[in-house]
């Protein structure tokens, strides 16, 4: 028997708007999520992620808009009639129940018989690799183990939609990566359509099939992680996801050079854009697209600071014109940063690497 009968259920959030008094917490958000997809709702605190999750769970009836699960509007259904499983930030396990009892809880509440309960609990504990801890109590388990129990409990009722609300917030960094991989594996195997709320961009980019980036209640971009990172559609997405060099200036067309940003700090940064000359813009450039040049022509500057960030070397360079650029490169074994004051040359930056957005 498959671990989840809800595999492949689509989820549509259709024009969801939520007002609290006069405050607009969510503004006409539409997301069309395919069956089996893992979608991350990513954004800073207060952008409306939890509100959207609560609307899907049925804890909240949005001011406007509809929630459609598997082609059926579910707006009239209370939470317990929606086929939705939830894992909360703090796991919310029942402390007086064993692991097996916790996992069986939702099954008993839905009138599943004892024999069938046993089968399903065993199936779920195998899925999260906790068969050996069925009789333990939550207090005698690690955070990661408790989280897997919470996941098993949520999946036991075979939800068509799984909702994860900041599920890794309570875990330390190492365990977090293990659990991210683990949850991704379980979600793949179960084929359950999943919405995960997070304010952690790395988590969203590494786990999700598609990322919905939210800012102040509005959907800024809904796309696969690589697109969100490589082709951000707004200045907000560019700065919130990944690290960006942001330089301000005005668009010009230079003879022999083409379109460029005439930087406020001096210098020209070639770019590709449909915006007209004269537009004040923020030019964004990923640090890993700024490389050092050994012999050829380039932009001259001086190292202000260098940081060895584990596998990456980061430098901040002050160019001759005064503009500052961060660089990022893979760190070779044993290599350290260049000392402050070192004169360096940066390779001319490819125009298509420079995204420009009208300066607000
Ligand atoms: P966080 O990451 O901090 O949990 P979030 O992105 O999940 O934030 P929401 O909890 O959805 O954000 O809140 C969105 C906005 O709505 C915030 O400005 C919040 O203050 C407001 N808000 C949420 N719930 C209520 C409520 N019950 N009454 C009034 N305002 C609310």
UniProtKB/TrEMBL annotation:
GO MF term set: ATP binding; ATP hydrolysis activity; transmembrane transporter activity
UniProt name for this protein: ABC transporter ATP-binding protein
Source organism: Methylobacterium tardum
SUPFAM superfamilies linked: MOP-like, P-loop containing nucleoside triphosphate hydrolases
Superkingdom, taxonomy of origin: Bacteria
Pfam family for this entry, one: TOBE_2
Organism lineage: Bacteria, Pseudomonadati, Pseudomonadota, Alphaproteobacteria, Hyphomicrobiales
GO CC terms: ATP-binding cassette (ABC) transporter complex
Family: Belongs to the ABC transporter superfamily.
Gene3D superfamilies: 2.40.50.100, P-loop containing nucleotide triphosphate hydrolases (3.40.50.300)
GO biological process annotation, one example: quaternary ammonium group transport
Alphabetical list of InterPro entries matching this protein: AAA+_ATPase, ABC_SmlMolc_Importer, ABC_transporter-like_ATP-bd, ABC_transporter-like_CS, Mo/tungstate-bd_C_term_dom, P-loop_NTPase, Transp-assoc_OB_typ2
Keyword Signal set for record: no
Domain ABC transporter, residue spans: 11-241
Entry keywords, A to Z: ATP-binding, Nucleotide-binding, Transport
């Amino acid at each position: 028997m498959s671990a989840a009968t809800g595999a492949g259920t689509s989820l549509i959030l259709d024009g969801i708007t939520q007002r609290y008094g006069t405050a607009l917490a969510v503004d006409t958000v539409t997301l069309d999520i395919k069956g089996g997809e893992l979608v991350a709702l990513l954004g800073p605190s207060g952008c409306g992620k939890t509100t959207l999750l609560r609307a899907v769970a049925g804890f909240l009836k949005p001011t406007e808009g509809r929630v459609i699960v598997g082609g059926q509007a579910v707006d009239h259904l209370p939470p317990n009639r929606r086929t939705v499983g939830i894992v909360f930030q703090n796991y919310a396990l029942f402390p007086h129940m064993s692991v097996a009892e916790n996992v069986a809880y939702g099954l008993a509440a839905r009138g599943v018989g004892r024999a069938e309960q046993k089968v399903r609990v065993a199936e779920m504990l195998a899925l999260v690799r906790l068969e050996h801890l069925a009789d333990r109590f939550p207090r005698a388990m690690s955070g990661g183990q408790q989280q897997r129990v919470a996941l098993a409990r949520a999946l036991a009722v075979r939800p068509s939609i799984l909702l994860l609300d900041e599920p890794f917030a309570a875990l330390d960094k190492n365990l977090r990566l293990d659990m991210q991989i683990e949850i991704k594996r379980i979600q793949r195997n179960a084929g359950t359509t999943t919405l995960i709320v997070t304010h952690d961009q790395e988590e969203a980019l590494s786990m999700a099939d598609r990322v919905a980036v939210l800012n102040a209640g509005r959907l800024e971009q809904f796309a696969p992680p690589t697109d969100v990172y490589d082709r951000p559609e707004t200045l907000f997405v560019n700065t919130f996801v990944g690290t960006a060099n942001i330089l301000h200036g005005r668009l010009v067309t230079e003879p022999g050079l083409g379109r460029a940003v005439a930087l406020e700090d001096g210098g020209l940064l070639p770019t590709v854009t449909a915006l007209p000359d004269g537009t004040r813009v923020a030019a964004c450039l990923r640090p890993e697209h700024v490389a050092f040049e050994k012999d050829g022509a380039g932009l001259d500057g001086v190292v202000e600071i260098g940081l060895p960030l584990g596998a990456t070397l980061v430098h901040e360079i002050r160019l001759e014109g005064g503009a500052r650029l961060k660089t990022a490169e893979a760190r070779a074994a044993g290599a350290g940063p260049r000392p402050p004051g070192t004169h360096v040359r940066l390779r001319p930056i490819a125009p298509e690497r420079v995204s420009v957005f009208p300066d607000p």
